[in-house]
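Data card: per-record layout.
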Amino acid sequence: GFRGKLIGNDEVNLKTITVEISTSDNNGTGLFASTPDSAPPTDAVDTKIVVKNLELSGSVSSTGSYVGGFLGKTSYNGRKYPIEIINCVNNATVSGNSDVGSIVGYNGGVSDFKVDGCVNYKTVSSALHDGCAGGIVGNSTAGNITNSSNYGEVLTTNGAGGGILGRGLPN
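The structure for this 171-residue chain is written out next.
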């Protein structure tokens, strides 16, 4: 899984990354499929995962679940890496079975999870009956989503759908 930082230099003129991702993977799909399942090294100085000042265009699709434009899913095993996704814009269509979001598909309990100042402009869709899709995050059991907006369509098949969060527990 991804760990580290991917930061654009300019908060106004975002760095655009174009992707065309199509897979059947059920372990996370996105610019970054997932975060590590293992705990951060004990001697690591900075263990925070940061994605900032980026724009995504194109499409991200999977016949599996845990699909996000920037991040498919966070780890839900062991110690969790802190995650910040800040000032990111999604201009890519994002589709999958369930747990689908324009920024993050699924946050499996990372309490130090922060999505701030993010915007979606494209369609986010969940194909699975009773699946979930969110304009920013598909499903999250912890963390915070702040100062974010969705202008895209959110489509589900008789499941949970929300403009910002498709399904989750408030923190």
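Known properties of this structure: The chain has a mean pLDDT of 88. The first strand starts at residue 5 and ends at 7.

See the next section for split statistics.
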